[in-house]
Amino acid sequence: xxxxxxxxxxxxxxVFDALKIAVLTFLYNMQLFMEWIPWWVVxxxxxxxxxxxxxxxxxxxxxxxxxxxxxxxYWDMMMYTMAIVLTSVVISLLLGIPVGILLAYSKKTExxxxxxLDAMQTMxxxxxxxxxxxxxxxxxxxxxxxxxxxxxxxxxxxxxxxxREVSKDMIEAALSFGSSRRQLLRKVQIPQxxxxxxxxxxxxxxxALAMVVIASLVGAKGLGMEVLISIxxxxxxxxxxxxxxxVIMAIIIDRLTQGIANRYNYKKE
Amino acid sequence: xxxxxxxxxxxxxxxxxxxxxxxxxxxxxSKSDILNETGHxxxxxxxxxxxxxxxIFVIMGLSGSGKSTLIRCLNLLNQxxxxxxxxxxxDIVRYSGKELQRFRQNKVAMVFQHFGILTHRxxxxxxxxGLEVKGIPKEERKQTARETLATVGLEGWExxxxxxxxxxxLQRVGLARALANDPDILLMDEPFSALDxxxxxxxxxxxxxxxxxxxxxxxxxxxxINEAFKLGDRVAVMKDGQVIQTGTPDEILNEPAxxxxxxxxxDIDRSKVLKAVQVMSKSLAAVSLSEGVQAAVKEMESRKxxxxxxxxxxxxxxxxxxIDDAIRAREENKDLxxxxxxxxxxxxxxxxxxxxxxxxxxxxxxxxxxxxxEKLLGVVRQTSILAGLT
Lengths: 269, 390
Known about the structure:
Chain B: Belongs to the ABC transporter superfamily. Chain B: One of its GO terms (molecular function) is ABC-type quaternary ammonium compound transporting activity. Chain B: Its EC number is 7.6.2.9. Chain A has a single domain, classed as Orthogonal Bundle (MetI-like fold). In chain A, 85% of the residues lie in helices and 0% in strands. Chain A contains 13 helices and no strands. The mean pLDDT of chain A is 87. Chain B has 2 domains: 219 residues, Rossmann fold (3-Layer(aba) Sandwich), CATH 3.40.50; 113 residues, CBS-domain, CATH 3.10.580.10. In chain B, the strands form 4 sheets. Chain B has a 6-stranded mixed sheet, with helices on both faces. In chain B, strands 2-1-4-5 form a 4-stranded antiparallel sheet, with helices on both faces. A 3-stranded mixed sheet of chain B has the order 11-12-13. The mean pLDDT of chain B is 86.
């Protein structure tokens, strides 16, 4: 394992550096945006989304909870954490959805990738922090890398499952009208799979959020870092407030993404 | 009439190495032996037939007889293991991917037993699916969708989602989707089997109506012999992956080629198959107005009839006279038009017996069979209905 990582760092340092720069640029812009956006716009947006996607009381509750995080003094921390979570979710989806589709098409690829996914989910997450640091150095990118590895399996698995479960009748019908493979995928399989893929996105987002504390071990700031600091200082209040903020974020993100997923849940035949 | 579809020795075997099984079956091994020995399923074996342009060709058989496998060979949803399928003279089995796509887009369209409606699309978006795949512009698609939905009786349902529709309506959408593509050939795989009997009958009638306007070539699959005989211009009966008889419903009904078909035919409700034109008598036709009362009485007496239809010189139906009225009229010097009755029933030649029975039972007179111009073609007497049913 060590040899493999050595080999990678020796021969592909350039690739990893380029990757690092790309990811960092994306994350940097995301952070800038998160810092720039006024707090009341965030609360208002969450309120409106909660109202539209779930119901009015949910919108009010979400807005109040967000306000609570603000009163803890963790607003900036929260936005920072949000930037990391969103960035890793975007990367996870960009990689995970195509991989999931690929798995659905090929039994062989599935046989290879499935055990890998199992390993990614069961391996204690501290373990892959080590090669991450060796490849990307200490800091945000390693944190992102670890988060993506931890969070990507659900979206891959559920995309794979969803594409496979598209009804045979619909596929036959689409083929009988002379659809190409691309048209079949774009016009039938993906739209039909969307509700399940949305569930995968929801799971991936939740897992990315669950990684924030561990990610802070390699230098990602934000709410996770606050928790870590409070553990070191045995500061119950600070720990509790930071922890509660993470829970609040989790609840809001979960309900909102579930709301979106439900939108796509048209009645099946 | 020319054969638009020509199937030559088509065999379809399912399994990992289909061609390896080919020799075994040619050597005469049975389907079940092959399944046990090699794990391959023989879906269709050595089937040949021709379908004429503009006819409804029904393939009938019980489940497992290979009929669905066969129809899927016609648009290569199943690739035949061996044999040729000529459509307009071209062997579609040899088509490359692109050619096959073009063929499916333009020449054939399929209607499915379980509808195959895309649940994430509105009714209209479903109907235009084929056009969309072909790359037809949006405005034109919309126009076609409206027209075809009107043809199948679904105007105003364009924006509905499939989840809001009943089974019968979903199949109408399926039919509209196939028609929207304006294919030469319509493949229908048990399209009405999943519908309840009332809706099924309605859909059968509608299919016949649509067909009389559009004159497509239709290959229709069913396991229901009544449906087969009602819709089919010609019927092929399948058993164990082979076609064991092909013919018109009449031929199959009267000369079943096989005990298996005899069994099938026994179940059939003949009143739903026999048509007026098949049971009517032409010789007993009528007396014409110009021949007068005298001739009418003579005709009826000589043939031992109690009544008779009256026509004009163009064979157009004018009414019916009874022998009692005619004898009285002869004494009173009345003319035929004064004594004809109008309370009789008429029927079209293609009307089935089932529809004739109530007419024959309600009226003291026979049923007159006429064409669209009111010309008298023949007469169906109560006795000939009974004779037809046994």
